[in-house]
Amino acid sequence: MYAEDPAFWRAGAISSTLVMLIVLAFLTVDSIATIRPGGANVPEYTVINKEIRYEFDSESSRYRPVIGADQPLFGRVYSPEQAEKAMRLGKLVIQSRNCMNCHTFFGNGAYYAPDLTKAWLDPAWQQMWMPMTQAATREEAIATFLMYPEKFPTWSRQMPNLKITREEAEALVAYLKWMSAVETNGFPIHFGHIQTNK
Amino acid sequence: MTAAQMLGTSLLLALFVLLAGCYGVLYCLARLRVSRLIGRAAGTAYVLQGLSATLLAFSPLDFWWKALLLASFVAYLPIPPLTWRLLENLHEPEEQHS
Amino acid sequence: MFRSQQLALKYFAAAMTLFGIMIVAGLLASTNYVQDGFLMNKLDFSVTKMLHIDTMIIWLLMGFIGAVYWFVPIELERETVGIRLAEVMFWIFCAAVAVVAAVFIFVQYGPATEMSLWFINQGRKYVEAPRWAAIGITLVVLVFIYNVVGTAIKARRITGIMGVLMVDLIPLFGLYLIAFPSMTNMSEDQYWWWWLVHLWVEATWEILIGCIMALALMQLLGTSRRIVETWLYIEVALVLGTGILGLGHHYFWIGTPSYWLGIGGFFSALEPLPLLGMVVHAVYDAGAHRMKTTNKPAFFWVMAEAFGNFIGGGVFGFMMTLPQINLFTHGTQWTVSHGHFAFWGAYACGVLAVIYLALQKSRAAQQLDGAAWKWSFALLNIGILGMVGALLVSGIAQAFYERAMGGSTLQAFMEGQTNVWFVQGIVMRLVFGFVFAAGYVVLIYDLLTIGKKRTATEALQARVAGGPA
What ipTM did this prediction achieve? Predict the structure, then answer.
């Protein structure tokens, strides 16, 4: 019987692995094209100059980011080069401050602090932090909080002060704004919308 | 999907695989001990797995996931006997040697 | 004993030390959930959590490397080629781990520059080690590959297991190179990062531990080569056949196309099937040998591996893997519960089994048994079961209140984290964490002492043979 011959299974192992790797290679080419900035699912970095919302789309029956009218960040319009530079710095802040070992991005990381995928859209910035920091805009409130988290605690579990500079804080806010515009197949579910019986 | 549906569905999914495991282990024990009783227990576990699959058919999962669950429910049935036979056939020549 | 095997024992000692550090770091991190502000600004959650998962990766990796150094000379019947270099690399590896740990604890973070990534912390989960240390790990793995391949060439002999092992070393090295770049685009970053994390943990490592268990079973139960090799090929076919595209279950929510929902869900729904086959195999072996073995602890850890893998990986994974459910459970304590159980079942138990095997040979003990290993086996397994059970309760509460009822925002997150079910679960996790730690202490005592005292019959036999009594 074939099943007792190691060579039969060796051939099976090699062929199934190769087939799967080839399929993965094709899917990867397609996925990378979809997730590059400006691809179908990931916006250009200059999306930070626009208003971003997260709304239920009945056609795909899930929540999707919606890009709206112009909405400058920190009172300025970023050129493509400036936006790219801010994103680079923002990402370096995320890595160097080890954000991912308390927070999650796209749900990946640690689970001790809130997910930051759509954090830009969190109503808490307007409801809690803008009054607390006496900032006029959402981005100012976020930047101030990031620089001095110990001064604006929201509950007993606090964020430590990670010595984030003003420039780093602005880049990080820009990064969070861009990330909130990524199409994530509906994750996190009904963000910012309390569930009623739908 | 509501909160209660999410919870119910996920627990049924866990039960589904867990019962498959019970079926597998009981099947092996029945073969080892040559016991009718344990054999019947294995059958019961598999029937219960079918029951969990039936309940999942009423969950808010999409049609294709339900079809996949049904297919894998069928696929679980022959795994313990086939694996067992393969293991016996593999071991047989050596046991004759010793 | 070959020098390669003495090196293996050193690797095992280092692995067990890191296992202990992992437990301490885990206890510190989980205390943060119970007591707010614990060690705030001294040893924040991010630091202890990072130490917890990084030491976990490194101790398992050291366990695998040690296991291979242990078995290669037996398998190829000669000393490992380049053993002196391997010994040097071991000390470099240990020194690098110590320096990285010290930097994590005392420096913690730096400014947003490439220099921070080179010398302090890369801030990418599991591969936080700064780049200089990542280069060190790459070199260790390269020397390891040279040892294995070089020995096979010198021995002019490639067994089936060695063949699989050598092919598997290519992705073990190649995928680790993903630990280096820092991509601006988070979607692309996580796309490749999952190649490293998933294809290491759910493919490359599975094959590696499969080879190690195959070698171990030949020694432990005297199973024939033809059987273990057939079984290894079946495992490779099934694990890679379902596992490579099982990668898709990490591509649901990171910006990747929605076809991954179908692919990921489909292949991860298949993943429990081979695990059931392994359970059947374990029960068959247990029955065929009627639990008679000269190395009870190794035998029980092998059994724990088969069952832990099925329940931790199969049951706990399947519960949350379909995209419709995962939308609620992803990134909650539910994931943590699955992660703890799966790593324990799939890898930790296997490494412990191999260590017991090696100790039996190195101490020339005919029989390895006693009371201590039973205590540590029970305490560690009760500890892990308690922890994953408690985390499951917390995770369910979090998915329910934060995601399904709330709106996944900060407010919803806080409501989930302060929910009474969540809090009780997270307290019980810490309690069982201490049970686990107690099991570790007994384990270390047992590993240091087991098989050293000879039984009366063994002493007699030794005297008859003319050896020292």
Answer: 0.96
